[in-house]
Design brief:
Aspartic proteinase Asp1, 361 residues, 4 helices, protease, single chain, aspartic-type endopeptidase activity, 9-stranded mixed β-sheet, mainly beta, Peptidase_aspartic_dom_sf
Length: 361
């Protein structure tokens, strides 16, 4: 995204599992990763005061409390993520240059975090991104702010291609309302996550016999995570169905992997050996999401096929079941906060469909 005046480019991690957008920031920086672009530099005039309504909603979303000692105090924040990463910083306002689908450019002034103390990933390697693009449903999220400014509808969608790349859009012009599968958004017990509610789990057409699991969609997670019970049921079913040509093998990339007679080059080499997984959502008049093998397997650099669904209970996610990027590939996923629904449809994500006036990134 292009931020500031003059606009400068930044790479952001697209995260539907959190609300706050933030950049690593020279305020000055106490702890920043090496990032692809020069650190964002704020000015005093850009600081959002603590008494601002957006500061109140940010604080209430993070801690449930909001207190200002003086009207001139700045809006500080501290945000922690499920993977133990964190950012401490201050809320600022600056312009975002965005091209609408009708080719006009808008430059709204939006609030985001200037993060001057980060603990994310490895500090020695260059991080792939300069910060996080928060697309949750809270009023501090960039999506909510664009909607409040009247620039787009409160709708966001992403389409991640199996071949790499993809597209992201704000607004509802690209949404195939009549063709997508829809389910009402459930109020997740887990923060402002987008949740289609509880799902029953099927593998190869048979129920795995686990109680319905609460599912959330989180583009900030690369992998999909199931709680211990559905995870074990899936692993047992997978192993019982495997052909004799596949042998379980140890691979440093992921916990459960198989090798074939010769190394696999891509998931397409191995998909016919595995069956589809299906989530059936009670909320959406039997809304089904099919997860074919290419949406739960990952081929590693060693040529092995590994399960891209991990045991979330082992990493402290308790009963939270997260659908991450591996499962969302070649599906257009739409978060429609206007109508309170989540939709998905299989799509070739390396091609942008025809559109009207959404903001397209």
């Amino acid at each position: 995204m292009n931020i500031g005046n003059p606009p400068r480019p930044y790479f952001l991690d697209v995260d539907t599992g959190s609300d706050l957008t933030w950049l690593q920031c020279d305020a000055p920086c106490i702890s920043c990763n090496k990032v692809p672009h020069p650190l964002y530099r704020p000015t005093k005039s850009k600081l959002v005061p603590c008494v601002d309504q957006l500061c109140a909603s940010l604080h209430c979303g993070l801690t449930g409390r909001h207190k200002c000692d003086s009207p001139h105090q700045q809006c500080d924040y501290e945000i922690r993520y499920a993977d133990q990463g964190s950012s401490i910083g201050v809320l600022v306002n600056d312009s975002f240059a965005m091209r609408l689908a009708n080719s006009s450019v808008v430059r709204p002034s939006l609030a985001f975090g200037c993060g001057y103390d980060q603990h994310v990933g490895s500090s020695s390697e260059v991080a792939p991104t300069d910060g996080v693009l928060g697309l949750g449903s809270g009023s501090i999220s960039l999506l909510s702010q664009l909607s409040q400014h009247g620039i787009t509808k409160n709708v966001v969608g992403h389409c991640l291609s199996l071949r790499g790349g993809g597209f992201l859009f704000f607004g509802d012009d690209l949404v195939p309302y009549s063709r997508a599968t829809w389910t009402p958004m459930a109020r997740s017990a887990f923060r402002n996550y987008y949740s289609p509610g509880s799902a029953s789990l099927y593998f190869g057409g048979r129920s795995l016999g686990v109680r319905p699991m609460e599912v959330v969609f989180d583009s900030g997670s690369s992998f999909t995570y199931f709680a211990a019970q559905p995870y074990q049921a899936l692993v047992t079913a997978l192993k019982s169905e495997l052909s004799k040509t596949l042998k379980e093998v140890s691979d440093p990339s992921l916990p459960l992997c198989w090798k074939g007679k010769k190394p696999f080059k891509s998931v397409l080499d191995v998909k016919k050996e595995f069956k589809s997984l299906v989530l059936s959502f009670a909320n959406g008049k039997k809304a089904l999401m099919e997860i074919p093998p290419e949406n739960y397997l990952i081929v590693t650099k060693y040529g092995n096929a590994c399960l891209g669904i991990l045991n979330g209970s082992e990493v402290g996610l308790k009963d939270l079941n997260i659908l991450g990027d591996v499962t969302m590939q070649d599906q257009m996923v739409i978060y429609d906060n206007e109508r309170g629904q989540i939709g998905w449809i299989r799509a070739p994500c390396d091609r942008i469909p025809k559109f009207g006036s959404s903001a397209l990134l």
